[in-house]
Amino acid sequence: METIIIIDDEKSIVELLTMVFSKEGYAVKSFVPSGRVMDSLEKEDFDLLITDIRMPQISGMKILKQMRTAKPDVPIIVITAYGSIPQAVEALKEGALDYVVKPFNLDELKILVRNGLERKRLKDENILLKKDLQEIYSFEQMIGKSKAMKEIYTLIEKIATTDSTTLISGESGTGKELAARALHFQSRRRNGPFVTLNCAALPENLLESELFGHVRGSFTGAIADKRGMFEVAQRGTLLLDEIGETTPWTQVKILRALQDRKVRRVGGTEEISIDVRIICATNQDLKKRIEEGKFREELFYRINVISVEMPPLRRRIEDIPLLVSHFLQKYCRRMNRRMKRFAPEVIGLFEAYGWPGNVRELENVVERIVAIEDRETITPASLPPEILHPGREVKAPAGLDPGFNLTAYIDEISKRYILQALQSAESNLKKAADLLGLSYRSLRYLIEKYGLKEHQAEPPAGKAVEEGR
To answer: 22 with 83, same domain?
Structure first.
């Protein structure tokens, strides 16, 4: 229930407004106008204030001015007599929402109150949304406690306070855009827009229009003026994703915008000043692109003021259990499924796999498992072949009969490959694990699970079995 405060030295008006707005469903409180009323207002939690502008004990203007400092987001409506309209206009200049003139129309006042409260609700929701976004994209969504990720967190915290152009590099799926968002929401530009543009998704002519905008009639289909992303991102951050895919001609225009801090719309003559922090992202080796003549060297040095390199998942193996837990909760909630758990050997297989698609690939695997797996405990039978047997082709059975058991089939293949690896490695578990693309721990678990200890050959004389410890 939203709360309205009423301050007026006329008891009849206070009683009338209390009755009217209580019937409208609001909580209504009134205060006697006095020199100490501000102390009471500052302690109260309320959503809108209605005050007379002329009162003998304290003026409504004084209340308004002090409220603008104490509670700047609370809308204020002032009541004035006909002869005090100039004061009411002055109150608007001081930040009042609106004013009504005695004798006022109750329906008009109700509309003003509804509009004022709606504005406050929208403002409060906007503040909460920005707070949520800041929390989401600080570091909470960048899951990981590995040394590599801790170094990323530290670097982002350091450079967030600057406006320096930043280049985020890394393989596909490592979280480059997430790092850019974290950088934005940690910076002083957090209340400004965060705008992202994938440079690889558009042909050159459309990319130029998206970046810099265009004026009406500048080309076929330009039926109205359009702002470019540099303008849309004013006082915020612009992420140019896949910057390495741009053509040399577009690179020249981006370089000019970065140097001059001005842009010119396609077909236009006016130069528009921009106040934007630029973050670029790429999964390519830009130095190699420079050698090939596909990327301008001067642009590289302009965007590479600060460099952030996102580590691939294979370099942060210790983060895999955390990531799996995060994605598992995310998709179980999203799909309204009962919470599942991964068997330890599955985590071992995850840690042994190379993840060429990085975190994005891991997320896709977990999402697919949550979507199709009915069992509460996820076993290796639910994993795709490339994770079960990395680097090896697994042939499916020629046909499926009513007695076919997928779990037994996969277990049989697993046992066959483990025995073959143990024989090739002369029972050296570390070498066998390397041959299978597994961790030592995962291989030892599978040997115990399948009861293969008796099949291990004795190590050659004079040689100890290496246990990878």
So the answer is: yes
411 and 382 share one domain: no
Q: What is the pLDDT of residues 240-271, one digit of tens each?
A: 999 999 999 999 999 999 999 999 999 998 99
* pLDDT tens, residue by residue, 12-25: 999 999 999 999 99
Q: Are residues 365 and 411 in the same domain?
A: no
Q: Do residues 416 and 372 both lie within one domain?
A: no
Last residue of a domain, one of 388, 408, 425: 388
The number of beta carbons lying within 10 Å of the beta carbon of residue 292 is: 9
Q: How far apart are CA 203 and CA 225, in angstroms?
A: 20
Q: Say what the pLDDT of residue 321 is.
A: 92
% residues pLDDT > 90 (the chain): 44
**Claim to verify: residue 171 and residue 302 sit in the same structural domain:** yes
Separation CA 27–CA 33 (nearest Å): 19
Rounded to 5°, the CA angle 442-443-444 comes to: 95
- Decide if 144 contacts 327 (C-beta within 8 A): no
Query: CA 215, 219, 222: angle at the middle one, nearest 5?
Result: 55
CA distance 33 to 54: 10
**Same domain, yes or no, for 147 and 231?**
yes
Q: Assess if residue 130 is contained within a domain.
A: no
Instruction: For residues 203 and 31, give the distance between their C-alpha atoms in angstroms, rounded to a whole number.
Output: 65
Residue 232 lies in a domain: yes
The two tokens of residue 242 are: 């896949």
0.90 exceeded by pTM: no
CATH at 329: 1.10.8.60
Strands (E), 155-304: 166-169, 194-198, 213-214, 226-227, 237-241, 262-264, 271-273, 277-282
Model confidence over 9-59: pLDDT tens digits?
889 999 999 999 999 999 999 988 887 888 888 888 899 999 998 888 888
155 and 263 fall within a common domain: yes
* pLDDT per residue as tens digits for the range 362-399: 999 999 999 988 888 898 888 888 888 765 544 555 55
70 and 51 in one domain? yes
Going from the C-alpha of 301 to that of each of 167, 245, 307, 319, 384, the distances in angstroms are 10, 17, 11, 33, 42
* Three-class secondary structure of residue 271 per DSSP: strand
- CB-count exposure of residue 433 (10 Å: 0-12, 13-18, 19+): buried
- Domain containing residue 346: 315-388
